[in-house]
Design goal:
By secondary structure, the protein is an alpha+beta fold. The protein is 21% helix and 22% strand. Strand 6 and strand 7 form a beta hairpin. The longest helix has 16 residues. The protein binds zinc ion. Belongs to the polypeptide deformylase family. This is Peptide deformylase.
Amino acid sequence: MPSEIAVEKKKLKNPPLKLHYLGDRALRQPAKRITKIDDELRQLVREMLQTMYSSDGIGLAAPQVGINKQLIVIDCEPDNPANPPLVLINPVIKQVSKDICVAQEGCLSIPNIYMDVKRPEVVEIAYKDEYGRPKTLKAGDLLGRCIQHEMDHLNGVVFVDRVENSLTLAQELSKNGFSYQAVKPVA
Ligand SMILES: [Zn+2]
């Protein structure tokens, strides 16, 4: 089936959806499972993709645009028109690797802040695609990290919650107009 969901990978002056930023309650609410995968949802997927490409992101979770649903879009090759985006509906983690790796992350909801985060190197997930077809995926590298980052959003967690260097984080946040009070460190 051709991907009808595909949108042109370009920057729009007025992206269809508004991003919510660190400190906004929308980012802290656990997202609800999606029960109906229909044209209306596929339209939302399209708008999330347009918003993500317009902001130079490689992943976007619905809570970041104020929508309390278990929906994620990802495209680790936004400059490659041939790379289809990935749409994750109701994703669940089936397994993570014992190997942990550290890499720098950023987030469209916390612009200009890039910091190291430790995560399992490989993750295995189950989800439904934009046509409701059940899928599984095992991913490492950038994609594996992106999936874990976006799935955190569905649980009301943002990457700064996982940053261990709290002193540098506090400095970076204040430099960019965010409050450290908005961080909820994970145990
Ligand atoms: Zn994010």
